[in-house]
């Protein structure tokens, strides 16, 4: 049996997690330049670190490793190296989700023998394995074009070459790569930089993808305080040789949902007496 003290502790943990919201950075200029993210092209490990308030992950390949990345191979030319995320409200009153991504994969790579082009950004709200939205980095069909935000199910995605790390099995791959269908629900502002060097342990050319999405496109998944569910953000190229995934924030409750949690456990007064935290 859980005693009252333990029960209260669990409830407070849930409530605190629900209220947890990272400080967001200022708005970005979507121009393919990452200086306003705080990223520095200075040839050091510290150069990957963005400004405070930006959620990020860095997966810079640190050795040749026979070209293995995960789940496939390809070396620097297929290396997805860093992803960044923030959101903010502009003067127009609209809130936007901003994404930055650095890769060693040339966005101009064409599909051919042992050659695979760029993939789309995939978003899974609820982290339940269903990819709810795709943001297109290239024209995919006659009606779905670069910059479109598309509501999807998993059947609306092409998949890569690997069924698990190192296992070549295109017929059974679950690694989503590019959008093949779905419903167009909005438009993102997307800019891809020209090539730049002096970044990453192994050097070589890199490219920066920068995009800004009006969160109204996400419908019920985004409320006044931010995302209404935790979500995964992923990008890879069409072979899925290297995936990069960012898990931005914990679940952010709407005020009504939080009241239900506190009311059901009878802890409203206890929470009010707690000192506020940053």
From TrEMBL:
<feature type="signal peptide">
    <location>
        <begin position="1"/>
        <end position="25"/>
    </location>
</feature>
<feature type="transmembrane region" description="Helical">
    <location>
        <begin position="249"/>
        <end position="271"/>
    </location>
</feature>
<protein>
    <submittedName>
        <fullName>PEP-CTERM sorting domain-containing protein</fullName>
    </submittedName>
</protein>
<keyword id="KW-0472">Membrane</keyword>
<keyword id="KW-1133">Transmembrane helix</keyword>
<dbReference type="InterPro" id="IPR013424">
    <property type="entry name" value="Ice-binding_C"/>
</dbReference>
<keyword id="KW-0812">Transmembrane</keyword>
<keyword id="KW-0732">Signal</keyword>
């Amino acid at each position: 049996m859980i005693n009252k003290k333990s029960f209260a502790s669990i409830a407070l943990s849930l409530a605190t997690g629900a209220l947890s919201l990272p400080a967001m950075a200022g708005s970005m200029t979507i121009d393919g330049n990452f200086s306003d993210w705080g990223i520095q092209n200075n040839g050091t490990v510290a150069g990957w670190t963005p400004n405070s308030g930006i959620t990020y992950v860095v997966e810079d390949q640190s050795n040749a490793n026979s070209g293995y990345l995960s789940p496939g191979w390809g070396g620097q030319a297929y290396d997805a190296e860093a992803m960044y995320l923030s959101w903010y409200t502009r003067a127009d009153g609209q809130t936007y989700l901003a994404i930055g991504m650095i890769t060693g994969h040339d966005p101009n790579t064409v599909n051919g023998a042992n050659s695979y082009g760029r993939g789309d950004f995939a978003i899974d709200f609820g982290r339940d394995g269903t990819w709810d939205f795709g943001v297109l980095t290239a024209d995919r069909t006659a009606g779905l074009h670069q910059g479109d935000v598309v509501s999807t199910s998993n059947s609306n995605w092409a998949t890569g070459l690997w069924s698990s790390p190192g296992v070549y099995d295109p017929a059974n791959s679950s690694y989503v790569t590019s959008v093949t269908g779905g419903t167009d629900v909005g438009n993102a502002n997307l800019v891809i930089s020209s090539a730049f060097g002096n970044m990453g342990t192994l050097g070589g050319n890199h490219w920066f993808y920068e995009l800004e999405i009006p969160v109204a496109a996400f419908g019920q998944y985004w409320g006044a305080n931010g995302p209404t569910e935790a979500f995964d953000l992923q990008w890879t190229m069409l072979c899925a040789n290297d995936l990069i995934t960012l898990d931005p924030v914990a679940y952010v409750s709407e005020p009504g949902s939080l009241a239900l949690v506190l009311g059901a456990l009878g802890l409203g007064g206890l929470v009010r007496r707690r000192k506020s935290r940053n």
